[in-house]
Specification:
The protein is of the alpha+beta class. It folds into three domains: 86 residues, Phosphorylase Kinase, domain 1 (2-Layer Sandwich); 173 residues, Transferase(Phosphotransferase) domain 1 (Transferase(Phosphotransferase), domain 1), CATH 1.10.510; 33 residues. 43% of the residues lie in helices and 15% in strands. The protein has eleven helices and ten strands. It has a five-stranded antiparallel beta sheet with strand order 1-2-3-5-4, with helices on one face. A three-stranded antiparallel beta sheet has the order 6-8-9. The chain has a two-stranded antiparallel sheet with strand order 7-10.
């Protein structure tokens, strides 16, 4: 038996994986990525003259759970109309029954790679604030991401920041409507996460990525809320700041509060965390750290150093005049 060349094997695997787009208006391009349950392909939209990203389920799914999750992810994205969230353009089903949805094709670098190109801490912290914006928007819409990590944040060539992969997001309003009395509503579609745990989000099920999961999320506690995303944002902030910058007590305190063991001790949401980072950048007191008097004086001196230098120069000039003409 003759072994097939690697190139031939690659072409065969691609042919097996490639979705059949017959019956759609899209023309298939190259594969650009793979996730926990599906693959992402470039596809041309001839009618609008643009290239989009097509996410397609490509795992065995006899029970239909993964298909339901993919459709749910598309619905979550459709609800999050924000510049920091990838917009959904279209949704459908392939001839073989697999669901797909079309979205904006994102180009750029993952968060950690983009941050490595920024020379100053101030620039990296400003980048972090741009990550907080879509997360805060999602929280305001009752959606918790639950899988924030560098590979799920893309920084585009013009500095645009996009939070990706909302496949295991938790919809708090759907769950609240189920608990309210009244006629039964359509049950929410709970995610099935192959990389950690089984279907559903009941207590005992672990969904997320180790290292970026809040303690309660890693334990599989039911009912995680926006403070689980605050934990993940705190881990991202720690990585963006770096060990040298974290020697600054106020910044270290912000990270410590965001990643507190108990949810009640963390920031209540992404806006509160972002507000403290802005205060740090502006040289103002942060809520996470109680300053000592000499620290407050030193911070005041640094923040108003130009005015203080001008005042000292004025006083020195006055003293010189007095010495010369005061005799």
């Amino acid at each position: 038996m003759t072994a097939l060349p690697d190139a031939a094997v690659s072409r065969l695997v691609r042919a097996i994986r490639a979705p059949d787009l017959s019956g759609t208006r899209y023309v298939l391009g190259r594969e650009v990525g793979r996730g926990g349950m599906g693959s992402v392909w470039e596809a041309e939209d001839p009618e609008l003259g643009r290239v989009v990203a097509l996410k397609v389920l490509d795992l065995p799914d006899a029970a239909g759970d993964l298909a339901a999750r993919l459709k749910r992810e598309a619905r979550v994205l459709a609800r999050l109309e924000h510049p920091g969230v990838v917009p959904v353009h279209d949704v459908g089903t392939l001839p073989d029954g697999r669901p797909w949805y079309a979205m904006k094709l994102v180009r750029g670098d993952r968060l950690d790679a983009a941050a490595a190109l920024l020379p100053t801490l101030r620039e990296r912290l400003r980048l972090f604030l741009r990550v907080c914006e879509p997360v805060a928007f999602a929280h305001a819409r009752g959606i918790v991401h639950r899988d924030l990590k560098p590979s799920n944040v893309m920084v585009g060539p013009f500095g645009e920041v996009l939070v990706l992969d909302w496949g295991i997001a938790r919809l708090l309003d759907e769950e609240a409507s189920e608990r309210r009395p009244g006629p039964p509503a359509e049950p929410p579609i709970e995610p099935c996460e192959p990389r950690a745990g089984g279907p559903g989000t009941a207590a005992g099920t672990v969904l997320g990525t180790p290292g970026y999961m809040a303690p309660e999320q890693a334990r599989g506690d039911g009912g995680v809320d926006a403070r689980a995303d605050v934990w993940a944002l705190g881990v991202l902030l720690r990585g963006l700041a770096g060990p040298e910058a974290l020697r600054a007590r106020r910044l270290a305190a912000i990270v410590a509060k965001a990643t507190a063991e108990r949810p009640a001790e963390r920031y209540e949401g992404a806006p509160a965390l972002a507000a403290d980072v802005v205060r740090y950048l502006d040289g103002e007191p942060v809520t996470a750290y109680r300053e000592r008097p000499w620290e407050r004086a030193a911070r005041f001196a640094v923040r108003h150093r130009v005015a203080l230098l001008l005042l000292l120069a004025y006083l020195a000039a006055r003293a010189a005049v007095l010495l010369v003409y005061g005799r």
